[in-house]
Specification:
The complex is a heterodimer of chains A (about 375) and B (about 300). Chain A has about 375 residues and is of the alpha/beta class. Chain A contains 11 helices and 15 strands. In chain A, strand 7, helix 6 and strand 8 form a beta-alpha-beta unit. Classes of the chains: A alpha/beta (about 375), B mainly alpha (about 300).
Chain lengths: ~375, ~300
């Protein structure tokens, strides 16, 4: 029995005796980067200890899975110069602070927190442990020893839109949304803009489930969208349930965050994936070489952080070519997704002709563009 | 119009999950036992059923595994509550919490597992009728089995000797005991059968409805089922109607959102419980109602005085 399963068994034993849900799987594992060399000729510097706090299980097939691939990429890149570990399913509550403080206490000097909700806990720990560098995903607050990083998921959503606009027969697209924050609204809008770039007639319907990871609700929402006439679906939630529902009901859908081809081979049109490896490798290199400074990073196709992969065979070549053009344009900066004229749902122009949105504008999107139906929950 | 047919179909499907579990709990409660462990039993059954289908590729073995898991946990619960006279509410809650933790642990390996391709069920001839076909006759067989089960339960509780004995045990365990019926064994049988139905519901959820496994995927459906038995004032037909009603509310909400009507899903999530409280308040105002409908010995401990 491996160490891993043994620990899990112990956890379960604890659970059974205590019958309490509070302890469920804060599984903690340490994985040495590589087998230690048999003999070290000269005294080497101690490896950099890096810890990751994940919000979901590494087996979610989506968000956390993608982060864990980034962690593995660090190990591959730096070998025995680093030791990485992770704690999965850390709730976005007071527990997060305890877990992150614990990580710092165990000698980790570079700590990644991979969900928005760790922002305040990480800030608190960062203030107390100045020697440790903190990397927080998707947040907006920084400190002297804490910086943020995010990926431009809307670029993937735009590319999915280009494919969806071409492949839809009903001209009705559906998006299963999680929580109406700017990031998700931006993705819905970008998806719609992408579809409109090849098919001006499309409209997008949105159903919100109020959760990042709730497969039964995601299934119900996807069913409702398909029943309402949508024939191509995208989701901004973390599971593969939407793709699987499309597969079951003979419609098309996309993978999100990770390549999800296997979950719905017939329905799958492509996967908008996040590749955290380039950023994680850069951050680790910064720390190793003493070049780490605070800041905010927002990486996309240009830096290799976002991609559209495993595009279905029946997507026409012209569309595949268009995707390649979008990628090339994003890479060399000749193309911008949020470039005017862009009109809001209410018909008012939000970006004038040739005006390109800056990151501040993108970070505060709280409106639907024209072509998206319905209202943002709690919005105006 | 077509979309309303599909909405109705989705409602029947969603209602079946609730109805199966609620009928199981009804069976428990008719015998005088309240089992708050439905959520935990459903979760364990969901992973048991899912795992069985992953390994065998046969949905029906999955349902059997789910029923087995539900029955096993219910038997444990029954032994504790009926023989050892533990507090049924505390024991049921413990079962729910245990089930949530244990299913998460047992399911680690299955989080990313895939089921073989799902079958689309269509009733021959009837399934091809416009509107009515897609609405009613393209469901999984268990949807119809659930309807048949309700009819069977109505007759069994009302007309059969064994059904009446079960109700007698739930109404007055002392009298049933005096008449020579093995109260504790009858209750255990009802609890195990009820657990099996909750298990079937859990397996239906992970094998047919969603269909995938993630921890905590029952997401409160067990509690809604529990509320349903009270909402339906312990009548099987009303349980089914209530299940379709609550299932329909969920689907309708997503449907409305899809066409642009804004209702917060959080508001609708609380509706089943609100409705249950209203029904409880109503039936409590009228003692006759309670006497007619609620098993008189519900939740009372029984120790045979022989």
């Amino acid at each position: 029995m491996t160490d891993l399963t043994q620990r899990r068994l112990l956890q379960a034993a604890a659970l059974i005796t205590l019958a309490t849900a509070a302890l469920v799987g804060c599984g903690k594992k340490e994985e040495p980067a590589a087998a230690a060399p048999a003999a070290t000729p000269a005294a080497k510097p101690a490896p950099l200890k890096i810890a990751f706090a994940y919000v979901g299980p590494v087996g979610d097939g989506g968000w956390t899975f993608a982060h864990d691939n980034g962690r593995k990429a660090i190990e591959k890149e730096f070998g025995d110069k680093v030791v990485t570990s992770f704690v999965e399913k850390v709730p976005e509550s007071a527990d997060a602070e305890r877990v992150i403080r614990d990580m710092a206490g165990q000698g980790n000097t570079l700590i990644f927190g991979t969900t928005f909700g760790y922002m305040e806990p990480m800030l608190k720990v960062a203030a107390d442990t100045k020697g440790v560098k903190f990397e927080h995903a998707t947040g907006y607050k920084t400190a002297e020893n804490m910086r943020t990083y995010d990926s431009r998921t809307y670029e993937g959503a735009y590319m999915a839109g280009v494919i969806a606009g071409k492949m839809t027969k009903s001209n009705t697209l559906g998006v299963v949304g999680s929580i109406p924050i700017p990031e998700v609204i931006r993705n819905i809008n970008s998806f719609t803009l992408g579809a409109q770039s090849v098919n001006p007639k499309v409209k997008t319907r949105v159903v919100w489930v109020g959760d990042w990871f709730n497969p039964p609700k995601e299934t119900e929402a996807a069913t409702a969208l398909i029943n309402g006439g949508a024939d191509v679906l995208m989701q901004n939630t973390d599971s593969s349930a939407v793709l699987q529902t499309a597969e079951k009901m003979g419609k098309r859908a996309f993978g999100w965050d990770s390549d999800m081809t296997a979950y719905g081979p017939k329905a799958h049109l492509g996967s908008a994936v996040i590749n955290w490896a380039p950023y994680y490798i850069k951050a680790t290199r910064d720390a190793l070489e003493g070049k780490w400074t605070t800041g905010q990073a927002w990486w996309g196709v240009k830096e290799g952080a976002i991609d559209m992969v495993s595009i279905a065979a029946d997507v026409p070549d012209e569309t595949k070519k268009k995707i390649d053009e979008v990628k090339a344009g994003l890479k060399d900066g000749s193309f911008a997704i949020w470039k005017g004229p862009i009109v809001g749902q209410d018909g008012k122009e939000v970006l004038k002709k040739d005006e390109v949105a800056d990151d501040k504008f993108l970070g505060g999107i709280n409106f639907y563009v024209k072509g998206v139906e319905g209202k943002i929950p709690g919005g105006k | 119009m077509e979309s309303y047919a599909l909405l109705l179909a989705a409602t029947l499907n969603a209602g079946t999950v609730l109805a199966l579990a609620a009928l199981g709990l009804l069976l428990n409660e008719k015998s005088g036992i309240v089992n708050l462990g439905a959520e935990g039993m459903m979760l364990c059954a969901a992973i048991a059923g899912f795992a069985a289908v992953v390994h065998t590729g046969n949905d029906w073995l999955g349902f059997a595994a789910g029923m087995g898991a539900g029955a096993l946990l219910a038997a444990l619960f029954g032994w504790l509550v009926i023989w050892l006279n533990t507090n049924p509410y505390a024991t049921g809650l413990a079962l729910s919490l245990f089930g949530a933790g244990f299913s998460a642990f047992a399911g680690i390996a299955y989080v990313q597992a895939k089921l073989p391709e799902r079958t689309q069920w269509v009733v021959p001839v009837l399934g091809d009728i416009p509107w009515i076909g897609p609405a009613l006759f393209r469901q999984h067989p268990l949807v119809y089995v659930t309807m048949a089960l309700v009819v069977a339960l109505v007759f069994w509780f009302g007309r059969s000797r064994s059904g009446l004995i079960l109700r007698a045990v739930g109404e007055s365990h002392e009298s049933a005991h005096a008449l020579g019926y093995p109260v504790r064994r009858i209750r255990l049988a009802a609890v195990v059968a009820g657990g099996a139905l909750c298990g079937l519901s859990g397996a239906y959820l992970s094998v047919v409805y969603t269909p995938l496994w993630v921890e905590g995927m029952v997401a409160g459906k067990g509690w809604i089922a529990l509320a349903l038995t009270t909402f339906a004032t312990w009548r099987p037909a009303r349980v089914l109607l209530g299940a379709y009603l609550f299932g329909g509310v969920t689907m309708l909400q997503f449907h409305l959102q899809g066409v642009g009507v804004d209702i917060p899903s959080q508001f609708l999530d609380m509706l089943p419980y609100l409705a249950t409280i209203v029904v409880l308040a109503l039936i409590s105002r009228n003692p006759d109602w309670i006497r007619v409908n609620m098993p008189a010995s519900l939740g009372k401990p029984f120790t045979p005085s022989s």
